[in-house]
Amino acid sequence: MRENRTLGKKLLEFKVRSGGTIAIDIQRCIECETKACVKVCTIQGGPLVLDVEQQVPSLRWSLAEIERGGCVECLGCELDCELYGKRAVQVNLPLAGFDEYLRSVAELLVYQVD
């Protein structure tokens, strides 16, 4: 089996340049009629292609090529899958300092006691 095939897998997961990951639940993709993630990724020039035989997303490049920048981390696959597909895509990207930022802008809850 080649590195970029999804045959026999239930989860297609790969690393991206930022150190994050993209995970696609292949079982949900089987039922998907729109293949929205593949459409938007193809438009963006990204790594997802449709495995015609299985009718699920597959990777057009090696995992190493994708991790070096083959995926531009546009979030289009996750958004379009959420809106038009089966909610099968999950993008996890590291955001340095995000937790600290949230703490800095959080308001303290003030309760009024009667």
Structure description:
This protein has 5 helices and 5 strands, in the order E-E-H-H-E-E-H-H-E-H. The strands form 2 sheets. It has a 3-stranded antiparallel β-sheet with strand order 1-2-5. Helix 2 packs antiparallel against helix 4. Strand 1 (11-15) and strand 2 (21-25) form a beta hairpin. The chain has a single domain (11-105), classed as Alpha-Beta Plaits. It has 114 residues and is of the alpha+beta class.
Q: Which architecture name does CATH use? A: 2-Layer Sandwich
Read across the widest sheet, the strand sequence of neighbours is 1-2-5
Strand percentage lies at: 15-25%
Gap between N and C termini = 68 Å
Share of residues in helices: 25-40%
Count of domains: 1
| CATH overall fold name | Alpha-Beta Plaits
List the helices and strands and how they pair.
Blueprint: E1 11-15, E2 21-25, H1 26-31, H2 36-44, E3 48-51, E4 56-59, H3 63-70, H4 76-84, E5 89-92, H5 98-105
Antiparallel strand pairs: 1-2, 2-5, 3-4
Helix pairs in contact: 2-4
